[in-house]
Specification:
By secondary structure, the protein is of the alpha/beta class. It has 15 helices and 19 strands.
Length: 498
């Protein structure tokens, strides 16, 4: 069981990634990923340097083919010539042979177990190559791209994600290869958090202490994307899990860094111990509502009969969790309260999401009250609703599962997301996936009601759930066709005149 009483970082080994160290006693490392073509040397170098200047010392680039992997040599050389010591990571999908090319030039290689065979010695060969050059390896499991073998046995579940990771981690351990980082990403915050918690338990059972990379995939943009990331990442940092993080936003990648740095700083200051008299009332692995309240409320909605619990310490998650679990009436509805004096609404939203969101993600709280004297009531209500939606306990608006884009993206995803949002944001209780390419797109938007996925340059494929409805349609027609698809399935309402 995780320590419910205080914030203590999970012990992990230190893994060198070029000039950066992840894990051990080192502070949590912030990182991002380029969205330029990896064949565009000048553009990629310029973007990496902007990310580094913003405070992200680790940057990942996609290497979907041999040409892209070979060009990593030129990109790294240009960075070093410009005086940047940025740790460079290659992201590999579908073609294991490309990893062996990239490993000759970068500081870390990220592979997805869903794209590797375990019966051909591919992982073992890559391990030996990484060992020779001192390259780190990230075992990066994605909820949406489990192998067919794992999927057929476990389904699209956190347990399947853990099984995929452990299979590869056992090979690393057997080969005495310790330069390993592991991640378990999903756009569904509940799946993501449970998968990481199960992974930590599984690794501890087998004596593994590899550092952990945290992230919520396809979080979207703006305040919504930042809050969604803060709820998922914050829940795990509150557990003491996490050695490096990425906040994935559908924006310029350097925009991710301030939010990630804010989260790291927010938890670095966390202190305070709170006794939990009834730990048996809580399971971090199984979501269940602890009260009869099925739809949590925000502060200006009726909450008669709720117990108001105030958080005043620097460790509000542990403080409130302890207070809830110690209630004499264990199923008494609870309204959690905390004051924030931040002048920036964005800063307030990220901090509140990280503090209070985990309580809803775990089914412990029933209402939220953010006391923020510097902001108007409508803005705070919006933040409260976004936190409840990110925690997947109350859906009050359209949710956009939008990837941050990378060198594989086949269209201007920021502009497209804005256009889709402008036409569909009035819809209620609907999830729309907006994905740059087919690598993780169809899988990561598995929770979406509708999907808009790049299929080729200038071409889009539309989905209803997991089913392809129209393939390779011209992008200039895709938004209208998406709206037609939503209308055809009865999910469309006309926007209010207000």
């Amino acid at each position: 069981m995780f320590d419910l009483t205080q914030y203590v970082r999970r012990p992990s080994r230190s893994v060198p990634v070029g000039p950066i160290a992840i894990g051990g006693e080192h502070p949590v490392v912030v990182q991002s990923m380029t969205n330029t073509s990896t064949l565009d040397t000048e553009g990629s170098v310029a973007q990496i340097e902007r990310i580094d200047r913003a405070g992200g010392p680790v940057v990942r680039l996609t290497a979907q083919g041999r040409r892209e992997a070979e060009n990593l040599r030129e990109i790294v050389a240009r960075l070093r010539a410009d005086g940047f010591r940025t740790a460079v990571v290659a992201d590999i999908h579908f073609v294991p042979e490309v990893a062996s090319v990239a490993a000759e030039y970068v500081d870390k290689v990220r592979i997805n177990p869903g794209n590797y065979r375990t019966d051909r010695g591919e992982l073992e060969a890559l391990i030996e190559q990484c060992r020779r050059r001192g390259v780190a390896l990230r075992i990066g499991v994605n909820h949406g791209s489990l192998s067919k073998r794992i999927f057929d046995r476990y389904g699209d579940t956190p347990e399947g994600m853990v099984a995929a990771a452990m299979e590869f981690l056992r090979v690393c351990k057997a080969k005495a290869f310790d330069r390993v980082v592991v991640s378990m990403k999903s756009s569904n915050t509940r799946v993501m958090v449970v998968a990481y918690r199960l992974l930590v338990e599984a690794m501890e059972a087998e004596g593994m202490d590899y550092p952990i990379h945290l992230g919520v995939t396809e979080a979207g943009d703006g305040l919504e994307g930042r809050i969604k990331s803060a709820v998922g990442i914050g829940a795990l940092l509150a557990d003491g899990i996490g050695d490096t993080i990425r906040v994935s936003l559908t924006e310029a990648p350097e925009n991710e860094i301030p939010t990630a740095r804010l989260l790291v700083a927010h938890f670095a200051r966390r202190a305070g111990r709170f006794e939990v008299r009834h730990p048996e009332r809580y399971s971090p692995f199984a979501y269940r509502r602890r009260s009869a309240v099925q739809v949590p409320v925000v502060h200006d909605e009726p909450h008669e009969g709720f117990r108001l619990l105030e958080a005043r310490s620097e460790n509000p998650t542990a403080e409130l969790r302890a207070a809830i679990l110690n209630l004499e009436q264990p199923d008494e509805p609870v309204l959690v309260w905390r004051r924030y004096d931040d002048a920036s609404l964005e800063t307030l939203a990220v901090r509140a999401a990280a503090d209070l969101g985990p309580l809803f993600l775990d089914g412990l709280a029933d209402g939220i009250w953010i006391d923020a004297p510097q902001h108007d009531a409508a803005a705070i209500r919006e933040v409260e609703l976004l936190i409840l939606q990110a925690a997947r306990v109350r859906f009050s608006r359209t949710e956009y599962i939008a990837c941050p884009s990378c060198g594989r993206t086949l269209y201007d995803i920021e502009r497209t997301l804005a256009a889709i949002r402008s036409k569909t944001s009035h819809l209620k209780n609907l999830r729309i996936g907006v994905m740059g390419c087919i690598v993780n797109g169809p899988g990561e938007m598995a929770d979406a009601d509708y999907g808009y996925v790049g299929a080729a340059p200038g071409r889009i494929t539309l989905y209803k759930g997991r089913e392809v409805i129209e393939r390779n349609i011209p992008q200039e027609e895709a938004l209208d066709r998406l709206i037609e698809l939503i209308k055809a399935h009865g999910d469309w309402t006309e926007p209010s005149a207000d």
